[in-house]
TrEMBL record:
<protein>
    <submittedName>
        <fullName>Uncharacterized protein</fullName>
    </submittedName>
</protein>
Amino acid sequence: ALLLSNSSTFSVRLPRYAENVVCVGTHSTLESVREAIVQEQSGAYLRFGDGDITAAYHGVDEMQTPNKNLSREIQAALGMQGEHVFKALMISSPMFDCLEKQMTPGNHQVSNKEALAMVEMAYPFWRPLPIRFVYSNCALAHAASAYESIALDFLETLRATKPFMFIGNEHVDSDLLEILFGPQCLHVTVPSSNAYSSIDSIEREARALLSRSDPSSFKTIVLAMGVSTSALQYRLRDIENLFQFDFGSLLDALEKWRTRGKTHNISPPAWIKISGFDATAFLNVFCERIGSINATCERYINNLADP
């Protein structure tokens, strides 16, 4: 039987694979992640966008050539389970009653058809079934542009927990990493394109750094490596006392798109321009909150202003 969507704004008969879906909004997603980290719960926040789902089916992503092993690992990541495993899909649409203020086409809103396709394609690999809670895959980015205080609160809490490691783009400025995560945060560098080709060495380096630290102490690691992110999160799932957070495209916005290296043919995420997000203003407010990194903030923000 097909059920009606519980949306207050849209009435449609949902296929069986989507009839139990509950969209978790921006604020609730960030709050769930924040609580897990503050309470030192092992887990992960995994973001699956259209590129990730396409790659799971051996399709082409603009920053990653197709790879059968990558496809298998994204499929496995879609099946990850746990009380503090928060899996996110790109379903911000009327169909799932999932639109928030300032969401528009290109600014995180997708069509009903696209949202339903995301769920349908994730379904064969998703565990447990039926698909129930689907977290926001744009939570931090959308909060930064539409609910600034929520994003700032989350980032302030994240920084206060002293993230152990950032696994991400080789071009991310060390000053920005210190601003966001603190001076103790190690950087495992990742190529700006085709990251999966280096995933074995990236995993080895991450495990080596983690093994040198106290295994009984809880750690948060932050990841930002495109469609390969969930594959690495799946590989690291066995490590105890660890929460893995996929940072998402807010990092690109705060770098003003300099994270893509020489891949100038790739356009920035549309939400950055559509929302009018001001990276300099956002960082100025965040730096005022932290208060102890004025020199680093001034240096980075001045550098950001350079063409």
